[in-house]
Design brief:
The protein is mainly β. Helix content is 4%, strand content 38%. The chain is built from 6 helices and 47 strands. The strands form 12 sheets. Strands 27, 28, 29, 30, 31 and 32 form a 6-stranded mixed beta sheet that branches. Strands 37, 40, 43, 45, 46 and 47 form a 6-stranded antiparallel beta sheet that branches. Strands 6-12-9-8-7 form a 5-stranded mixed beta sheet. A hairpin with a 5-residue loop joins β15 and β16. The longest helix has 6 residues. It starts with 23 loop residues before the first helix and ends with a strand.
Length: 612
């Protein structure tokens, strides 16, 4: 262990207060090293897995259950609840049951049978009836303040209308102060007919979005279409069977009418592979627009159908833009200027488009694409050498006013779990308000994949094979938590205070050194960690009671005077750890690591303050 006034770990024993001089050979070996790596180890947020927050998590998602998430306060008790729709993974006809999780004092409890199994269709059991749902939204359709659940099924062939059409689960509100749960009501959604022939269709929807399109105070629904078969490059749906996108208008009471043909042009609703759609006012004219992506099949682009603010519900302008393989989109304010930007999951590099205001004609002036950034490596290549991923989410995780971007890795179409794929969490480092200089960076502790990545506390294996992610305050402490729904189960990660770290004095030009954990009072231990060194290489910790930065052959040596040197060896990933017990009286030590060799390097220096 590493401690002041005691014995340190290693093959030799050292007392940190000893007056042994620092060997001159160490000083003589040092000279100018590599550029600084100060961009690593930014503990901007910290998370800890909480199995007790979701007892049934292991059974909710696996290699037989693909998931999509929606969340909100469904029973209006002040806590955020979670809805999980499920299907057989990838583009298949396999149907699965859905799950309703109520937040009960910070614990997400499966209440599906009690509160989501009612239906107005004989023999149907609501969420307990298997469906092939690809997407879900949670929004108030009836105006009573209680949100309804709307699902978008795909490839439900040969089933009755109440299975292969979108389903609306009505929130029954409270009776006598007791919440009544949800009831599936088939009559609220019309049978969708072919726009030319009028025959009944079996929709293949992959996306649903909600918004007040005609500005009457009621929330309407838009569904994105999917024409491909159960093999990616197989035969497309025949025109005689093709639903295309659909716009459903709410009568104010939660009953819907198909208004597609009256509101949108054939070009606007044309979709071969629409995996996501957003209803939002992107040009800030007061009317809700339709933003969507199309990929894999012609046409392939990002598009906006602009709503006419003088005639809400009528879409007159349609703009399209060629973008690198757009696979999923979401909208959010990434540069904190009040305008909606776009985050685009791509089969190439994921990127964002900043909303730079309107052109003279009233449509949005989008910035050039800006790729997300990595401190090490990049997005791994998978099937056909492309960087497949899918669902993304924009959310301010650390509460600093700059939204982060989370991108799940499991492709909803390609039937594989690529070995190196995982959720990517991009920290928004901020920048110019309204500018396009915002950096979205995947932070990490070091070059090693054995340490945290994305945010402190998350290891790569914790993020691997994620279908979808939710962000909300699970335990009511005011901090944003994460729910990761993965092939390996669904887990809750609570945001916790970042560990206390001793003061970094800087000056390093190589590995990262930190002392983090407790405040080093009695019983509050910490840990010294060295990251980013060469693997299985001798390291020397130089220790002194104060700092006096001194240039020695091009490298800054900080501890002064050097009273102890501890020899240690890094592990196979270039890291090492040493426990640092707290207590034992007030004292200050300065610690710095050095690596000898053909190109010696030094870490930053850490000022360690011990307390009684």
């Amino acid at each position: 262990m590493f401690q002041h006034g005691g014995v340190a770990s290693g093959s030799a024993k050292f007392k940190l207060g000893a007056r042994k001089a620092w060997p001159l050979c160490l000083a003589a070996a040092l000279f100018l090293a590599h550029p600084a790596s100060a961009q690593f180890n930014d503990k901007w947020a910290s998370f800890q897995q909480s199995p007790s927050s979701l007892p049934s998590g292991a059974q909710l998602s696996d290699d037989n259950h693909e998931t999509d998430l929606a969340w909100g306060d469904i029973d209006l008790d002040g806590d955020t609840d979670l809805v999980i729709v499920r299907k057989e993974p990838f583009t298949t006809t396999g149907m699965r049951t859905n799950v309703l999780l109520l937040n009960e004092s910070g614990v997400l409890v499966d209440r599906t049978a009690a509160f989501a199994s009612a239906s107005d269709v004989a023999g149907d059991l609501g969420f307990l009836t298997a469906t092939n749902d690809r997407d879900v939204v949670l929004v108030d359709l009836t105006g009573d303040g209680y949100p309804e659940i709307i699902t978008a099924p795909e490839h439900t062939i040969g089933q009755p209308k109440h299975i292969h059409h979108p389903r609306i689960y009505v929130n029954l509100g409270r009776v006598g102060g007791v919440w009544q749960g949800f009831r599936y009501e088939d009559s609220r959604f019309p049978a969708l007919l072919h726009l030319a022939s009028g025959v009944l269709l079996e929709p293949r929807f992959m996306a649903v979005a909600a918004g007040d399109v005609n500005d009457d105070g009621a929330v309407d629904l838009y569904f994105g279409d999917h024409d491909t078969g159960t093999t990616l490059f197989g035969s497309l749906q025949q025109e005689s069977e093709d639903t295309e996108d659909r716009l459903l208008i709410n009568d104010g009471n939660g009953f819907f009418t198909d208004a597609t043909a009256l509101s949108l042009s054939p070009a606007m609703i044309k979709s071969r592979f629409c995996n996501s759609v957003v209803l939002a006012d992107v040009n800030q004219d007061g009317a809700v627009d339709v933003i969507k992506q199309l990929t894999y099949q012609f046409p392939e682009y990002l598009s906006v159908a602009y709503n006419d603010p003088l005639n809400p519900g009528s879409f007159a302008v349609h703009t399209t833009g060629i973008a690198p393989a757009p696979y999923f989109i979401n909208a959010g304010d990434l540069n904190s200027d009040g305008r909606l930007d776009l985050a685009v999951t791509s089969n190439e590099n994921d990127f964002v488009l900043f909303n730079m205001g309107n052109k003279p004609a009233g449509d949005v002036n989008w910035s050039a694409t800006k790729d997300v950034q990595f401190l090490s490596g990049g997005e791994p290549a998978g099937y056909l050498g492309l960087t497949y991923s899918s669902n993304n989410l924009i959310a301010d995780l650390d509460g600093d006013g700059w939204d982060e971007l989370l991108i799940a890795d499991v492709d909803v179409e390609i039937p594989t779990y690529a070995p190196d794929f995982r959720l990517h969490l991009y920290h928004n480092r901020g920048g110019t308000v309204g500018g396009d200089d915002i950096d979205l960076v995947e932070e990490r502790a070091s070059l090693s994949d054995n340490n945290w990545v994305g945010a402190h506390g998350l290891l790569p294996d914790d993020l691997r094979w994620t279908h979808d992610v939710a962000v909300f305050d699970v335990n009511g402490d005011g901090a944003m938590d994460m729910i990761l729904s993965r092939r390996e189960g669904t887990q809750v990660w609570l945001q916790v205070a970042a560990p206390t770290c001793q003061e970094d004095l800087g000056y390093g030009d190589g590995p990262i050194l930190e002392v983090c954990g407790g405040d080093l009072s009695t019983g509050n231990d910490a840990q010294l960690t060295l990251m980013g060194a060469l693997p299985q290489t001798p390291m020397f910790l130089a220790i002194g009671p104060s700092s006096l930065p001194t240039q020695i052959l091009g490298t800054t040596v900080v501890p002064f005077p050097i009273t102890s040197v501890i020899a240690l060896t890094t592990d196979a990933t270039g890291e090492l750890t040493v426990p640092v017990p707290g207590g034992g009286g007030s004292a200050t030590l300065v610690v710095q690591a050095f690596q000898l060799g053909v190109t010696p390097i030094s870490s930053s220096a850490i000022k360690v303050d011990f307390k009684p």
